[in-house]
């Protein structure tokens, strides 16, 4: 090359590099590195204490994502966490889907746009109460495959998918070093629970998975959760209700809590779990107190298992999880607000928490202890280039006594700690927060009939015929029982359910013919016996039909079937419909799990002995005729000969229903109340809203009051005993048009569609109760005068903060008393001491506004209503949509 050529080449190269560099330059952040030490993740050179909010993107719609992310940020999250969902992204081998609810890139970008970081747990086994734990069902069919072990076919498929995800994110420049939000990745999921089942191969698989992940050069650290032998640089992390004792397997790794279970999931026929926020806050404060550095809420928003994504078997369609943001995207208060305060308190401690390499431990009593984080830090002084030293000190005081409060002395000052609580002292002196003292508002959400147009009315005051929003006219069409198309096949013997359905439908029809002789009939009559269908083991639901008549329904997870049946003389059709209700998502050897029937399957009680049904010739048919015809879609539904349903029609099994309805006005979340139906699936404008099943929770097992004290488990503080587990089914607003929405329902058991109604979920009532002795609001710590030292935080007064959901304002104050009020939300009453102007002061501050702050002090209420007594302010307020009364939001 000539010299001038060389120069031109260099110029071109630098131009190219410049373009490349500009293209890879920061899109959300200035590119930054993520590393770690024993104390924390190190983000752009600085240790960080991080709060992470778990949101599974396909459990919401893309239209919901921005609001969920914004609510997480406002709640104090630094990071958004999600799994990836392999079976959603690769429903057919080699055919990828990153659209709609599965638009991972869009979701990560929205998180980046909001200035939050991202933790992506790729798995690709994820558990998550998600169908088959996230594995595509086609994975079972890869020759020679064994899941989650040292098995070449499995490793090949896993590596292909994980590589696909990492490459996609790199191409989209979503890693931190590219200026993207992703700071941390996860490979596998709780494999430590399964490893022993796989012997040496399990150990080898862990090493392989670690090396494979690291080999992808994603440029951010990786974690493995519940994996005490996580190799090399991979950080082993904790998943549990409490993780404050957790120590990673190397002194060089930070303590990370990937799943803080702030609630739990639910099965059909189960009670609803509830984890009290006082205990949740206690667990989190203890984690940071004892050296933790990153905590992720599993879940911050749980959402909905739309379609057939629910795992199981038997997990319900709602994945509300009792999370701080409810299934509908509304704040669950006081959970969200109390945790917001906790996060602010931890944020105040962050400089000391990251500066100190480890805490100083102090025993304060038999069950009381303090951890103090103290360090000298060097900062650049104002107006000078010289560094100056400043000391930082934060402390956590814990009372782990489950029953009694304790008064402790810490650095010469006395502190009273409620039972099972932690006080957080960002300056080692003043309490910013105590986990058991909830100052945040409570919000009561009403589920109201949607009326057209404009207004909604609380359920209690409705009479039925006032209700609209309920489809008035219904059409129906029967699902044929048994074999309905030419797409069937006949096979000598019993086939495994999933091998046939490939999980393309819940339903598999099996049909055979049984011959009954005159002698059999006489035998049954003489001996007063009837033949019985006996199956060693079955899951999840079996329906038995004889000559088209439903004669038995059985459900359970690998349960024995003993079902008496009746035949007439001659040939009869015996039809078995086996059904899945969400595939297994947890356990070893998932590929072998299967569905349908196991073991012997026979008809007993015949004169010449048992009939071994597994030897007969069976005709198989996958799925329902209506599913195959897609009669739930706008385009195809007309094809199905619908007929008008009479109001007094008797409930019929295996029936399709359809109706049209108008969307309720406003922005409030919408659901269908399917409480009048039995079991089936529902679609709105072709969107599958999920399975429904009207099973009732046991009457017992719920306690009237929930005591937050003591270690939580998912059976504690249960609610909803004796009621249907789920009656409301979320219909995302974005799936609705203003009018003429198509609702299609497939009903198996028989129900009354005329009773189906459209409901609105409205956060109507706000309550709060804060005493004079409560600590000042967390935001006061950020007040410039407090930061500058002109004012002490101890001069600040406590406050009540009320806030309606966006688009709503406080329309009335139903109760307000500054004094000694009694009772709790929706049940407050005045006590002996009551400031006469309570109502007017609170009304003045709050009415007509979306949000208001009221100081809890004598001066706020024109003087002391009763000297020498600690006063409390209790408020109950109502919120209404600002559009309904034509007042704009403040
Ligand atoms: C964990 C698992 C999660 C989820 C959770 C229960 O063990 O890692 O994916 O299944 O349990 O909600």
Automatic annotation (TrEMBL):
PANTHER family: BETA-GALACTOSIDASE RELATED
Keywords tagged on the record: Apoplast, Glycoprotein, Glycosidase, Hydrolase, Secreted, Signal
InterPro entries in UniProt: BetaGal_gal-bd (IPR048913), Galactose-bd-like_sf (IPR008979), GH (IPR017853), GHD (IPR041392), Gly_Hdrlase_35_cat (IPR031330), Glyco_hydro_35_CS (IPR019801), Glycoside_Hdrlase_35 (IPR001944), Lectin_gal-bd_dom (IPR000922)
One example GO MF annotation: carbohydrate binding
Reactions accelerated catalytically: Hydrolysis of terminal non-reducing beta-D-galactose residues in beta-D-galactosides
Protein name per the record: Beta-galactosidase
Entry's Gene Ontology cellular component terms: apoplast
SUEL-type lectin domain: residues covered: 794-880
Gene: LOC110421933
Subcellular location field: Secreted, Extracellular space, Apoplast
Homology family: Belongs to the glycosyl hydrolase 35 family.
Primary site of residence: secreted
